[in-house]
Each structure stands twice: as C-alpha cells, then as structure tokens.
Specification:
This protein has helices at residues 40-50, 57-62, and strands spanning 8-13, 18-22, 31-38. With 66 residues, the protein is an alpha+beta fold. It is elongated.
C-alpha cells in the first residue's frame, strides 16, 4: 500500500465549486487541488465548512455578490 490509497483530495473548479476525488487519481480537466487531502469523511467536512453558497461564481458575480 502506497500510503495514499484510501485518501481523497478536495478539488475546486473555475466556478469555485468543490468536489472530492481519489488522491491517487489524475486531477480531471477543469479542476485543481484545493490543498486538502484526507479520508473521505475529512474531505467532506472540509468542503462543508468552506462551500456555503452552491451558486457558481459566475452567477454570484452576475448578481453583484462577489
């Protein structure tokens, strides 16, 4: 076992939407690492703490909110 198996990475896209993905997998196009790796539950908690507004960033900007 590599030590990374079973770990997940938090990803973020250009619309500031979060996702989690296996840490050993190649990051899919359109996404970048958000800087957090842990168990699936830890990653989900990280996302839950930070992603408070589910609207895409482009919609928030269009509405004058960021």
């Amino acid at each position: 076992m590599s030590g990374q198996e079973g770990l997940w990475a938090v990803l973020i896209n250009h619309e500031e939407q979060y996702g989690i993905y296996p840490a050993t997998a190649r990051v899919p196009g359109g996404w970048r690492p958000a800087g957090f790796v842990g168990t699936e539950d830890e990653c989900q908690a990280y996302v839950d703490e930070r992603w408070n507004d589910m609207r895409p960033a482009s919609l928030r900007r269009a509405m004058g909110e960021g």
